[in-house]
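hi support,

uploading two proteins for the ticket. first:
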Amino acid sequence: MSSADSTEAPIYAGLVEEQGDVPAEVRRVAEEVLREADRAIDFGTVRTAAAR
């Protein structure tokens, strides 16, 4: 979060200081899960069928 963001949303900035940046952490974990799922399951046939 930039300093401009903290002046525009001081309540959010305070929550980030106390709890951490939860949306960023959720995004990171979701991307990691998607990468793991992509390695574990071949979605190639699903993507090909959806394109038709």
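and the second one:
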Amino acid sequence: MKRIENNHFQSLNDYVYKIQLTIGATAAATYIIKDNSIVNEWYSGRHDYPENSRSVDEKTQFNVGSIRKTYLALAISLLIEQGRIRSINDEIGTYLHEYKKIANGVTLRHLLTHTHGLMEERGRFVREFPAGANWAYRSPGISMLIKLVHHLSGQHLSTFMRNNVFDVFQLKETGWRTEYHENLIYNYYKDKDTWVGPNSSDEGDQSNLFISARDLAMWGYIHLTKGCLGGKQVLPKSVFERITTLQTPNTVPTHLPRNGFIWWLQSDTPLNQIGERLPSCSYQILGITGCACLVVPKYNAVVVRMYNQLSNPRGYDYLSDVRQFGNLANDLLMMV
């Protein structure tokens, strides 16, 4: 991919740096692809607090938190393409019989759009609201979909993605990490005085997915181009079209968020995390560590930011920040 060197996006980098200082993150990065060229690549800070810690660079891999859920979304779409899932309107209990009772009426569509109405309480799943009646960001839907991938493919999510996507697109700086190495950043909980890094599970069922800024930008780019890379259609367009198309049931009240397969879609709802100035075709995914991947088809662009922070200071407005980040990106992309 061609690289264009200029300072056009410096004001966005300055904003990301300001927020880095505000939230106390030791590390930050931005990466922007536009019109099939790298137009911005910026790194800031260190892997740890001591001054002799490794500097952040292009090889640095961040824990991306809930961004990992879009990798699950692609796995589900691939299983549909392969004919192993008939329809996202099928109930999860059709495939995983242990959920027939507790998830009666809950479809794959509900799980993919956070409208399933299930929550975990004392180690078991309970109903919070009827499926399709509301929206709530809860973990049971993700857990069920991860089990579904294993049940239908015979592979853990991490292996399925490595075989079908990571190796194909050469995403060598993406993976569920079980051991520390120098390219990984740990995420620090200030309040708990603990670090969060690799863990013992390599199955893709835990929050130990680490990605470099350039690999996360490539992840967004794969979606932007609908599976096309270097002029070659690597995966079918339909895999990505269903992921980035509105999938939220029309029974969900209109003031609540709208999703494709996990991805947030642009909308005018109060809970929307995409800047209001971004075009209606935009979609985005975020992680608790502060990482974000924003795709803007109108501008043929992908915008990524990375942080390594898990606890934010009092007074910091997360929603305001991510919207402002998107709005600034929009304004700069318009002028390129």
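thanks. also noticed: The first helix runs from residue 10 to 23.
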